[in-house]
Design brief:
The protein is α+β, with helices and mostly antiparallel strands and about 120 residues long. The protein has one domain. Helix content is about 30%, strand content about 20%. Strands 1-3-2-4 form a 4-stranded antiparallel beta sheet.
Amino acid sequence: MPDSIGLADFIAQVRAELMQPEAESVNAPKLLMVEEVELQIQVGVTRQANGGLNVQVVQLGGSAKRDDVHTVKVRLEPVLNHDQRLAELMKDPRWDNWKKEIVEHTSKGIDGRSQREA
């Protein structure tokens, strides 16, 4: 499967992208916390000469035969639950500033206008 990516590499890339800070706010933590991500991935499985299996994410428009393609569901969950993550954020000395920015962002929106003015 040319130009394919391994399943572990794909999942690692998804996790890395979910960990990126929001573009609008460099200083504050994410406004929304992801509790769970479920991926439904189509993979191609081939047997290697050494007896191992090669599992690769199938690219869109790929030419793999239908009987070689399997659907895999992967659920990613954070190590800490919502309350635990919030408690950790609140320990940070920047918490008061973050809280203020989050409240302003929530009440005024991205463009800075009050929800009542919109």
